[in-house]
Amino acid sequence: xxxxxxxxxxxxxxxxxxxxxxxxxxxxxxxxxxxxxxxxxxxxxxxxxxxxxxxxxxxxxxxxxxxxxxxxxxxxxxxxxx
Length: 82
Known about the structure:
By secondary structure, the protein is mainly α. The chain is 72% helix and 0% strand. It is built from three helices and no strands.
């Protein structure tokens, strides 16, 4: 049982690293290629926690990544060929 717990922890750590890498990559892409979107990133509810010490979970990270992806994709659809 202890070994299974370690496996789950490792999977969660790997998933967290993967999500953080994706978030970094898309954030840098937005800042470098579409700086006009940076203001929207700073205003996203996910970046303004409503708790003093918000817990960082895989669900929160995934939600944040999806939000960044949505902002970028919506922009690209509205502004093709830029």
